[in-house]
């Protein structure tokens, strides 16, 4: 498969998309076209080729994707299912590769695949894999398990803002974690190795860690704070989430326990056995560098 040159990016203004755009530009390998939803207030540097498009229109997207070799989607959760329209347009335009917004847990694991939080992502996987059988499009899923910097910033990996972190099942389970920047490196790596990444999932990580390790580093970063960690049982969190979901509660508090399970429960495969780091140019980080991440967010 020839190298990809013309790349369209959807979701370029989001937390991950900004990093992906930056890394695509920095690589110097690609011509980049940002797809911006009509009416979006998002702004980009003057050297970025931006096309305003109706994301609900296959015809409009097909025109926007003319002459593009690959589409990278970093859209947020609310826009996961509408990616089907982008896929249809990509096929119509002759795009060769689609990277859906699948970043996160390993969805080949049955426990993750049946999780309520990933239902829409699974539907997109099924959609693109079927389309790939009867068209010229191919796909790649990028799995990075926990977002390291985002997870710290949002108090997900360790609730540090009030110094009362919940340690899931004691906080001793090892899991893979990856920074947004390294995920963006992986996107560049996939686009640079089209044949090796064709129609499969790739796995990346910056480091393996635990909540206990993160708490240790947090205490080192903020030694004078009143740290009061508490142990919580994942089964209890999931039972509460199931009850909320049964009552129609689709709020963040409902879905966070399912994310904890996917990231931290050993049965869900969040501690990657092998990775594609070397192929994709993901260098990983040291524990010293992990401390720098923690220090940035823990005050």
UniProtKB/TrEMBL annotation:
GO molecular function list: oxidoreductase activity
Stretches assigned to the NmrA-like domain: 5-205
Keywords, ordered alphabetically: NADP, Oxidoreductase
Coiled coil: none
InterPro entries with a match to the protein in the record: NAD(P)-bd_dom_sf, NmrA-like, NmrA/Isoflavone_reductase-like, PCBER-like
Superkingdom as given in the UniProt entry: Eukaryota
PANTHER family for this protein: CIPA-LIKE, PUTATIVE (AFU_ORTHOLOGUE AFUA_1G12460)-RELATED (PTHR47706:SF1), NMRA-LIKE FAMILY PROTEIN (PTHR47706)
Name of the protein in question: Isoflavone reductase-like protein
Top-level taxonomy: Eukaryota, Fungi, Dikarya, Ascomycota, Pezizomycotina
């Amino acid at each position: 498969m020839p190298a990809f040159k013309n790349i369209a990016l959807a979701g370029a203004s989001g937390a991950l998309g900004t990093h992906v755009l930056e890394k695509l530009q920095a690589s110097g390998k690609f011509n980049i076209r940002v797809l911006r939803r009509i009416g979006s207030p998002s702004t980009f540097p003057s050297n970025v080729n931006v096309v305003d498009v109706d994301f609900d229109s296959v015809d409009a997207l097909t025109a926007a994707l003319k002459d593009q070799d690959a589409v990278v989607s970093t859209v947020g959760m609310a826009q996961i299912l509408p990616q089907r329209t982008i896929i249809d347009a990509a096929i119509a335009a002759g795009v060769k590769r689609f990277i859906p917004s699948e970043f996160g847990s390993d969805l080949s694991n049955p426990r993750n695949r049946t999780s309520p939080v990933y239902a829409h992502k699974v539907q997109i996987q099924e959609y693109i894999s079927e389309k790939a059988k009867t068209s010229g499009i191919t796909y790649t899923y990028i799995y990075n398990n926990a977002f390291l910097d985002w997870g710290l910033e949002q108090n997900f990996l360790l609730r540090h803002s009030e110094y009362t972190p919940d340690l899931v099942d004691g906080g001793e389970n090892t899991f893979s974690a990856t920074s947004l920047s390294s995920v963006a490196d992986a996107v560049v790596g996939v686009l640079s190795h089209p044949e090796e990444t064709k129609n499969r999932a790739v796995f990346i990580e910056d480091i393996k860690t635990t909540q206990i390790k993160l708490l240790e580093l947090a205490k080192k970063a903020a030694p004078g704070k009143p740290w009061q960690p508490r142990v919580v049982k994942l089964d209890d969190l999931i039972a509460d989430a199931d009850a909320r979901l049964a009552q129609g509660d689709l709020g963040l508090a409902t879905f966070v326990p399912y994310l904890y399970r996917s990231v931290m429960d050993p049965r869900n495969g969040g501690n990657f056995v092998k990775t594609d780091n070397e192929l994709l140019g993901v260098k990983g980080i040291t524990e010293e560098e992990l401390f720098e991440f923690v220090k940035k967010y823990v005050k």
